[in-house]
Design a protein that fits this description.
The complex is a heterodimer of chains A (162) and B (562).
Chain A: E1 4-13, H1 18-28, E2 35-40, E3 46-55, H2 57-69, E4 73-78, E5 84-95, H3 98-110, E6 114-118, E7 122-129, H4 131-141, E8 146-151, E9 155-158
Chain B: E1 2-4, H1 5-15, E2 20-24, H2 30-36, E3 42-45, H3 49-63, E4 67-71, H4 75-78, H5 81-89, E5 94-100, H6 116-120, E6 126-129, H7 136-148, E7 154-160, H8 161-165, E8 167-169, H9 189-201, E9 205-209, H10 211-215, H11 219-228, E10 233-235, E11 250-253, H12 260-268, E12 271-275, H13 281-284, E13 295-300, E14 314-317, H14 320-331, H15 336-341, H16 344-356, H17 370-381, E15 386-389, H18 393-401, E16 410-411, H19 422-432, E17 438-443, H20 444-447, H21 454-459, E18 465-470, H22 475-484, H23 500-507, E19 510-514, H24 517-529, E20 534-539
Parallel strand pairs in B: 2-3, 2-4, 4-5, 5-7, 6-7, 9-10, 9-12, 10-11, 12-13, 13-14, 15-16, 15-17, 17-18, 18-20, 19-20
Antiparallel strand pairs in B: 1-8
Classes of the chains: A alpha+beta (162), B alpha/beta (562).
Chain lengths: 162, 562
């Protein structure tokens, strides 16, 4: 059966050890984590965890059920598909030789990124977007020489009904 | 008025009707122990913390109540891990209280500090570190609630010394609710209608009952269901006793060492109704071939059990007892005689299988056969004892040759397969039922894993009986070596075992031995009739194997029969 990428978000109790329960479940049962984001919501007692995982359909069913079984998981939703907005963020330090500087700035402009740090030999770019955009941006910057990159995993929210 | 954390603990114990605690004191629980002296709670001092958890587990399995144990921090806590994992795998409700170093020392590698919450996270249903005495009552109430509700399991509460010494105001919390924890007891009616439809169509139905039947107290409903439309019942190891083993509709246990007829039925049935089971690999064999002709109905309270190991046509999430009650109500509307009649050819076929290969062994006049000891034990107890087992051949022969007619009669480590479980579990069961006969069937290997608990049995006059099937081997591993590793007995020979008779006497118990078949009955009769702890050492055939046997990973219908 085909493995597909899924974005799961869950509301959890904002207590010590809760992240470890979630992550331990994945490692203990051999589930895969591609990326992970955690931060409190507006309610300080509740955090939102977003996990990108790859699994076939029956395994996905197990992952969701196992997560729901955790006492500290309040709510869980699969955000895969167009009904949710997804974003990732990256900070990319790219080598910026004089011959490349204009091209890099054009790319920054096209991708609506920001240059947040400048040096004689580099730009550090702040970029946000969905997974496809981030991949395209990285591919374009690779030939210039990416010195360092820091990326977040995806976060997602369901679109509110209009 | 303010009371201490230790007093809060006692208040909650009282509210939760805790009458017996199994434990072992230490520096970080000394305040709790001190407070316990002011209560009526009976504390049973074990000799090793693993024994405390298994004893609480045995108590819980025998009574259906939550088992409680109390140990100190560090090594006291880590010694509980095997016991906790054992209870977790078999869904046994336990509350394990561990002491912890004071909160200001946590993380400092203090004396006897260990992150027991981190260590037991994957083998508890839930666990807690209490950092504030004001939260203690709530946490303890939640712990009992979680342990006993839904699919039961062990819950660990780690209490730092300054929390048990700290003061707080206390008011009873009554029944509590947890926002994110709502087990589904009530099954979907729609799913049950589908089950009835399948039952009506089925010519070769089979019920497969597991530990969930015992945990939810669904035996009566199961018996009603099976008898009224004559559906044969097979059981997992954990399910034995959920349906009377001596009932003609009982096929006995299925799986790796299941009966021939139970395994053949599984291969041939057209409808398999799993009740409170999880389709463990020891039951299914090769999953692709398991019940390949059948539509599978699976009733369980834990949604993660459904469709985990085998494809399921009709999943029913719900409490086994409630689900079977509702199913029986729906069947009231049907023509039961007609349904029952259409199973006749199937029952005839099963009878043929039964006659073709009964559970059997070659009796011997010179050497005691282990199966013979179990048969005699069954006869002499009239099938009425509570039986615990260790793990391995002793466990399988007990499952095969002792016919359990009632729930909570067999206490055995099914999921984790923990050697050393039987004796402390027997002590726990005996503590709950002082008047009943409690027998631990053991091997010479496994009994040595927690033999120190004989001292506990003697100290508290808990007259448990230990039956050792002594073959000088780690028998089940030796059997695998014989059958699959060209008889290369790597490290399975237990030479230099202690003299169990003298050992029993050293503990202050009675020790008896039989070396010839004709002595078996007399030794059993004397041992079972003695009103104090007894070890009976049966020197049995060394290289006897448990049959039938399905080699690991093979289809369940492909059995080695001798």
């Amino acid at each position: 059966m085909n493995e597909e990428k899924h974005i799961l978000t869950m509301l959890v109790d904002n207590k010590p050890g809760v992240l470890s329960r979630v992550v331990g479940l994945f490692s203990g049962r051999g589930f895969n984590i591609e990326s992970l984001c955690v931060a409190p919501t507006v309610d300080p007692a509740v955090s939102r965890i977003t996990i990108v995982t790859k699994a076939n359909e029956p395994l996905m069913e197990q992952i969701e059920k196992q997560l729901r079984k955790l006492i500290n998981v309040i709510k869980l939703r699969d955000m895969t598909g167009p009904r949710a907005v997804k974003r990732e963020m990256a900070l990319i330090c790219v080598s910026a030789k004089p011959k490349n500087r204009d091209e890099i700035l054009r790319i920054v402009d096209i991708f609506r990124c920001k240059v947040v740090d400048v040096g004689p030999e580099f730009y550090t770019i702040e970029a946000t977007g969905d997974a496809g955009k981030m991949k395209a941006l990285v591919n374009l910057l690779l030939p210039m020489g990416i010195k360092k990159i820091a990326r977040t995993g995806a976060i997602a929210l369901y679109r509110e009904p209009h | 008025m303010k009371i201490t954390g230790a007093q809060v603990l006692m208040e909650v114990f009282k509210e939760e009707h805790v009458d017996t605690i199994f434990g072992f004191p230490g520096g970080m629980v000394i305040d709790i122990y001190d407070e316990m002296l002011n209560t009526d709670i009976r504390h049973i001092l074990v000799r090793h913390e693993q024994g405390a958890v298994h004893a609480a587990d045995g108590y819980a399995r025998a009574t259906g109540k939550v088992g409680v144990c109390l140990v100190t921090s560090g090594p006291g806590a880590t010694n509980t891990v095997t016991g906790i994992a054992t209870a977790y795998m078999d869904s046994i409700p336990l509350v394990v209280i561990t002491g912890q170093v004071p909160t200001h020392l946590i993380g400092n590698d203090a004396f006897q500090e260990v992150d027991i919450v981190g260590i037991t996270r994957p083998c508890t249903k839930h666990n807690y570190l209490v950092t504030d005495v004001d939260e203690l009552a709530q946490v303890l109430k939640e712990a009992f609630h979680i342990a006993r509700s839904g699919r039961p399991g062990p819950v660990l509460v780690d209490i730092p010394k300054n929390v048990s010494m700290g003061k707080t105001t206390y008011a009873s919390l009554g029944n509590i609710k947890i926002k994110s924890y709502n087990p589904t007891y009530q099954p979907h009616q729609k799913q049950l209608h589908k089950v009835v439809k399948l039952i009506k169509k089925s010519e070769r139905p089979l019920i497969f009952a597991g530990g969930g039947v015992l945990l939810s107290g669904a035996a009566e409903e199961l018996i009603h269901l099976a008898r009224r439309i004559r559906i044969p019942v097979t059981m997992s190891l954990m399910g034995l006793g959920g349906f009377p083993g001596s009932d003609p509709l009982s096929l006995g246990m299925l799986g790796m060492h299941g009966t021939y007829r139970a395994n053949m039925c599984t291969g041939a049935c057209d409808l398999l109704i799993g009740v409170g089971v999880r389709f463990d690999d020891r039951v299914t064999g090769k999953t692709d071939c398991f019940a390949a002709q059948a539509k599978i109905v699976h009733i369980d309270i834990d949604p993660t059990s459904l469709r985990k190991n085998v494809p399921v046509a009709v999943p029913v999430v719900g409490d086994c007892k409630i689900s079977l009650q509702l199913l029986n109500q729906l069947l009231d509307e049907e023509n039961l005689e007609e349904i029952s009649a259409q199973h006749q050819p199937w029952l005839d076929q099963i009878e043929e299988w039964k006659q073709a290969h009964k559970l059997d062994y070659h009796p011997n006049e010179e050497v005691i056969k282990p199966q013979y000891v179990i048969e005699k034990l069954y006869q002499l107890t009239g099938g009425n004892a509570i039986i615990t087992t260790e793990v391995g051949q002793n466990q399988m022969w007990t499952a095969q040759y002792f016919h359990f007619d009632r729930p909570r009669q067999l206490l055995t480590s099914g999921g984790l397969g923990t050697m050393g479980f039987g004796l402390p579990a027997a002590i726990g069961a005996q503590a709950a039922f002082p008047e009943r006969l409690v027998v631990d069937v053991a091997g010479d290997g496994s009994i040595q894993m927690n033999i120190q608990e004989m001292a506990t049995a003697v100290q508290y006059s808990l007259p448990v009986k230990v039956v050792i099937l002594n073959n000088c081997y780690l028998g089940m591993v030796r059997q695998w070596q014989q059958l699959f590793y060209s008889k290369r007995y790597a490290c399975t020979c237990m030479e230099n075992a202690p003299d169990f008779v003298k050992l029993a006497e050293a503990f202050g118990a009675l020790g008896l031995r039989a070396t010839k078949p004709h002595e078996v009955e007399a030794v059993l009769a004397e041992g079972l009739g003695t009103p104090r702890p007894v070890i009976m050492d049966f020197v049995v055939e060394q290289e006897e194997c448990v049959y039938p046997m399905v080699p690991a990973g093979a289809p369940i219908t492909e059995m080695l029969l001798s």
